[in-house]
Amino acid sequence: MRRLSLLAALVLVAIIAAYAWALWRNNRDVPPPPRAELAARLERATGWLETHMSPGGDYRHPQLWWMIRQAAAHAGSPRLLAFYRLHAPYLRSQPTFAVWSGMFDDTASVQLPPPGRLPGLPAYDYLLLYGLTCDAGWGRAPEVTAQLRPDFCSAPIREPQCNAFQLLGVRLVQRNGCGDRDRTAALLGQLQDDTVTWLSRDPRVDDAYILRVLVLLDSGAFERVRPAWIRRILAAQLSDGGWGDVQPVLRLPDDSVLGFTSAGLVHRRLRSDFHATAKAVLLLGLLLESRHP
């Protein structure tokens, strides 16, 4: 029992020390990564997508495929565009694609069913669909009106990505001119402030961290993104070219890690996934577009 208590104490000390070290690295001043490194990282990530995303596979989240399409356009990557075009017919054949088609075609005329006719949507999808269509009925839905308030993510129980998803949706509302533009602009600024605070205080480079940096870039706040945040995301790219949702704290002899995810402390092997990788790919595309050769 005494040995177990000692081991638990050592693990706790290691976690605290790792957090303090990560917090320092997260907020230090460093130069931005060079364009050549960003381009090389995107090539590696594209290789992961080509290897692990088989045609006819996972199209449950069209927003992720929109990120791939946008990344290809922003980065001017023929290889990434070819990957997207390979999957586009399968994506468009999905039963739910019609309601999301506005993300892929600016000229698409989308007729949304009443909000209650699409069960199982997370709250942020309500806001995204409203932002895509400016549909008045969806604009009155409680799930949308709640997210057009700055305190939506301050409730005690919200997912770690809440603020970032809200910012992504509000930015879409702003782009398409839905609702009160002055109110939307004010909300956007407040959500950017909140996102910067999150990034400054939470150094875990997980899926939520990547999304926070991405939405700051996507909402035009390039000057607020610290080079250290970009460098830490690049450092989290795994050897296969993708990204995962674990910030390692302790590496164990069996090649597993004890680390943090968006959901808390876990023990697992590091592995790349489509969610984190698609977000990182769009982040890289935005950075490459913003820089001259």
In short:
With 293 residues, this protein is mostly helical. It contains 13 helices and three strands; from the N terminus they run H-H-H-H-H-H-H-H-H-H-H-H-E-E-E-H.
Features:
293 residues; mainly alpha; three-stranded antiparallel sheet; 13 helices; globular
Q: Please report which band the strand proportion falls in: under 5%, 5-15%, 15-25%, 25-35%, 35-45% or over 45%.
A: 5-15%
Instruction: Output the radius of gyration.
Output: 20 Å
Strand order in space, largest sheet: 1-2-3
Q: What is the percent of helical residues? A: 55-70%
Number of helices: 13
Overall form: globular
Question: Span from first to last CA?
Answer: 61 Å
Q: Overall mean pLDDT score? A: 89
Number of strands: 3
Spans of at least 5 consecutive residues whose pLDDT stays below 50 are none
Structural class: mainly alpha
Query: Could you state the order of secondary-structure elements as H and E?
Result: HHHHHHHHHHHHEEEH
Major sheet attributes:
3 strands, antiparallel
